[in-house]
Amino acid sequence: MKWITRERARVDRIACPWLISRFIDPAPEFLFVPANQVLEAAKREGAVAYDVPNVELGHHGPRCSFDAFIDRYELDDPALAKLAPIVRGADTDDRGLTPESAGLYAAATGFQAGSRDDFENMARQFPMYDALFTYCRAEAPARKRPRVLFVCLHGAAKSVVGAAHFRKLAAARGLGIDAAAAGTEPDAELTPRAVKGLAGDGLTAAPARPRPVTLYDLETATRVVSFGCAVTPKAGVRIDQWDVPAVGDGYEAARDRIVEKVERLVAELAGGR
Q: How many other CB atoms are there within 10 angstroms of residue 140's CB atom?
């Protein structure tokens, strides 16, 4: 994917490419342009704009773009949760937010001043973020909840329905297992019939918009359910292929087939609990 932001990066616009490269996109292409050209260039290049006003992956209240990426791509690693306020403090005026924020700001300012361009700046700063992440990982608890990854082509219906019902049924059995939904070629919006159908079931469609399968998904999934898509999780993780009718052809028929399969999966993971 292509990712675009303002040139002359310092903190957030280096931290976000690091996050993308390490946790989201296996082959990212980064673009840096003058601030007044970002949105136009994003449209022309088919790129995702970040850290500019009025975009999803930007600042919202006291939270910075790094926070927005973590939320959007459901990166629930405890080490990232500890790193986020360090970045937030360095990128905003709240330098005292964490003990490390002022130091990160100072180092990033030096890297910005001493680099030929944003690409050299990234190359120099990425090892610093690797080190900070390792530090945060040592300070933070290990990830507590395993996660089942549901994947469909557009990430807009089947995977979302499957994840929602898995969460409900797993919770009813007392299983501490979460679920995520993603697509290999995500649509811009969720299928309305899936959203309406889940609401009728008393469930919320999540994520609110389809998102791609990320590096983090493939690294952390303890089980993968695919609706006809090719995905490659880490070695040893089982992939189940489910054949289910299209949600667009009728929510109830698709939902009933998905729930039947989810019930068997939950029973298996519960181990007789």
A: 16
